[in-house]
Amino acid sequence: MSTTAIDRPTSTAALASASALVAPLAAPHTLQTGAPALPANTVALLTLREELITHHPVNDLMRNSSRAMLQFFELYGHFAYGFAPFVCTLFTTLRGQRAKAFIYENLLDEMGCVSGQATAWDNQHGELYRSFLTTLRRTDVYQSHIGEKEQRELDVMSKRLADQAYGTYYELVAEGNDAQSVGAFSGVEGWVAAEYPFWRACLASLGNDMRFVDMRTIEIHCEADVEHARVLDELIGEYAGGVQAADVHRGLLRGIEISQTLFAAMRDVMSREA
Ligand SMILES: [Fe+2]
User: Per-residue DSSP letters for 85-108?
Assistant: First the structure.
């Protein structure tokens, strides 16, 4: 296996970006809207949701090996392609109008409907990731680490991992418990805003080749998902303060397990010798 250590960037912006390699952003679940404080056991689960990802061994593999990092972005592909349909399914399955209202903004963002901008199919978040990966594959650094045959194999594995993750989630949603479904959704996507800055810093470490990579998917998820997580945590707080506390907490745990299963499987692939 080829392992190329990350060269540390030196510009101020790059240093700020590189700090994300070691220090995750402040947890976005700190409510700022005057909403009641979250119960301590809910806060603990929301923190667990993020830190099990931001401290996952996958991050060390990405930090220490360009090859492993590139494998990761391949393996994450089908999970990214499937995310908008996943939010769609959640939205249509939720029974409570209030829960639907909380998910709606997120759904519009996923589908590429940005307020004030013309709707374009290629702004759909799965398509943004596809463009990112397509342009990444063309770079010299990618081609020096991953050949065409391996790229196809990684794509097949990525599809299998995504099918497994979403299959588990769709079964959970079919149980028809809104609080549980929303909790699980948070367990699956609530770590995005904390993790993507690290991915951005990893990619920046690959150097000049990144000029040719479509980074919109990375930039968007560093920013938009801070608000997504905050809004979702507000809804979770409502469930957690009422009779559905156990449901939303169980959902969080089941969502966290889906994310952990996905990341553990990616780690296994990334740890293999070429
Ligand atoms: Fe997204």
Answer: HHHHHHHHH---HHHHHHHHHHHH
- How many angstroms separate the alpha carbon of residue 121 from the centre of ligand 1? 14
Residue 66: both structure tokens together: 């360009």
Integer CA distances (angstroms), 189 to 28, 95, 256, 259, in order = 12, 20, 9, 8
> Please, which contacts does 143-150 make with residues 24 or more away whose CB atoms are closer than 8 Å?
145/2, 145/4, 145/66, 145/67, 145/70, 146/67, 146/70, 146/71, 146/74, 150/274
Tell me, in angstroms, the distance from the centre of ligand 1 to residue 272's CA: 29
**pLDDT, tens digit (0-9, with 9 covering 90-100), for 135-170:** 999 999 999 999 999 999 999 999 999 999 999 999
Give me ligand 1 centre to Cα 53, in Å: 17
What is the phi-psi region of residue 242: left when phi exceeds 0, alpha when psi lies from -120 to 50, beta otherwise?
beta
Q: Provide the CB-side half-sphere exposure for 8 (13 A, CA).
A: 8
Residues 6+ apart with CB under 8 A from 12: none
For the question of whether the overall pTM of this predicted structure is more than 0.70, the answer is yes
